[in-house]
Write a structure and sequence with these properties.
By secondary structure, this protein is α+β, with helices and mostly antiparallel strands. It is built from 3 helices and 9 strands. The strands form 2 sheets. Strands 5, 6, 7, 8 and 9 form a 5-stranded mixed β-sheet that branches. Pfam families: Glyoxalase (PF00903).
């Protein structure tokens, strides 16, 4: 079972702002932030709900990032749509507009946005309309 997951960002400030805006429609916000003085070299922001960070974005001193795919659960299709709009408005790039993806299963409704570092970020709802 996964407790939390983290990605690195070339531009921490830009990525933090992107995720603050893109994840808000999914009910997630920054619930913990760490500065360089606490970590010994990087900045981090933990996103989640109810005080529990489950998704971390952190700076990398050497500029090395690794591309990942992260899918966040959405309560309904409207939240998927709102995530997509918010992600694009926050500077993300389209990687798949909201819609059904029946090749996964009949009720798979998702949207994909590339974050400032090219990570493929998805919001998905598995519920029927």
């Amino acid at each position: 079972m996964i407790d939390h997951l983290g990605i690195t960002a070339r531009n921490f400030a830009a990525s933090r702002l992107f995720y603050e805006r893109a994840l808000a429609p999914l009910g997630m916000n920054v619930v913990m932030a760490l500065g360089k003085e606490e970590t010994g070299g990087y900045e981090g922001a933990g996103f989640g709900a109810h005080g529990k960070p489950c998704f971390w974005v952190q700076s990398v001193p050497n500029g090395q990032v690794s591309g990942v795919h992260v899918a966040f659960a959405a309560a309904d299709r409207a939240a998927v749509d709102a995530f997509y709009r918010a992600g694009l408005a926050a500077g993300g790039r389209d990687n798949g507009a909201p819609g059904l993806r029946p090749h996964y299963h009949p009720n798979y409704y998702g949207a994909f946005v590339l974050d400032p570092d090219g990570n493929n970020i998805e919001a998905v709802c598995h519920q029927p309309e």
